[in-house]
Amino acid sequence: MTPCDRALERFLELTNTSLEAHVSDRAVTLHCLSAHAPEFFEAHHLGPKLDAALEGLAALPSTFPADLPWEVVMARLDAHYFRALYGLENPPLPSADVRAAVAKVTEQSVLAGWLLAELAGALGVEFEIPDPSALTGMERTYWRTHQILLWTSYLRDPLETEGADVALNELARSLPLRLACGEIDPAAEIIFCLQAGGRVVEPEFLERLVAHQQADGRFTESDSDDAREQAHCTAVCLIALAGRRSGEAGAAERLAQQ
Q1: Which of 34, 46, 189, 195 can pair with 145 through a Cys bridge, CB separation 3.0 to 4.6 Å?
Q2: Running along the chain, 258 residues long, what does each successive block of 10 average in pLDDT?
Q3: Measured between alpha carbons, how far is 184 from 172 in angstroms, rounded to an integer?
Q4: Which of 205, 130, 143, 202 is nearest to 170 (CA)?
């Protein structure tokens, strides 16, 4: 099995739970694979798994009590966002409760508050979006990668937004540092965003990513046993590696047709 195949197998095992973050991450990751790595997606017959994951999102609650942790707020907004992308029905969002939940998260993290506000805004909840432009370091990397994810409906659509080149240039400059610091979660997100933007990612960077894979196929960047963190890190590394494989397959096919 290739590192990419092993990552997929482990990711599906890690997210085969009822944890809301896992239900959400499973659907998001399969959606990204279908758009960003279609050859890999088809070769592994992931269509039925994506369909099942989208149905699984419908089981997540649409309530937003004041004490809801940010990752659960995100999972529930993700559920609405991704079902909407596929034209699936959603119950109405309680706008006032969503705004209150996002405001509370923003007090703790401008980055998380910004992303939640963007997701909710795309779903019709009116917001004053927090401004993350002063973020630095790894948080700034996450802001830039998630700008690209939002601009492309999570890698589904072409990256044609004004300002995309500025974001991609910034991400390209930060990739070596993220890898040098062992921050493979944001590094993997940088890689698949660069791929989505048509940028060349040097094989060295992908191999440095692969070097962090554990024997059971998962990717982690710390000793944390946090179940959501491990699944997310494995997911983003999987998307980056699958994007490379699909790109190589597409290039080989084009050469064969010449």
Answers
A1: 189
A2: 96 97 98 97 98 98 94 97 97 96 96 97 93 96 98 97 95 97 96 96 96 95 83 97 69 35
A3: 14
A4: 143
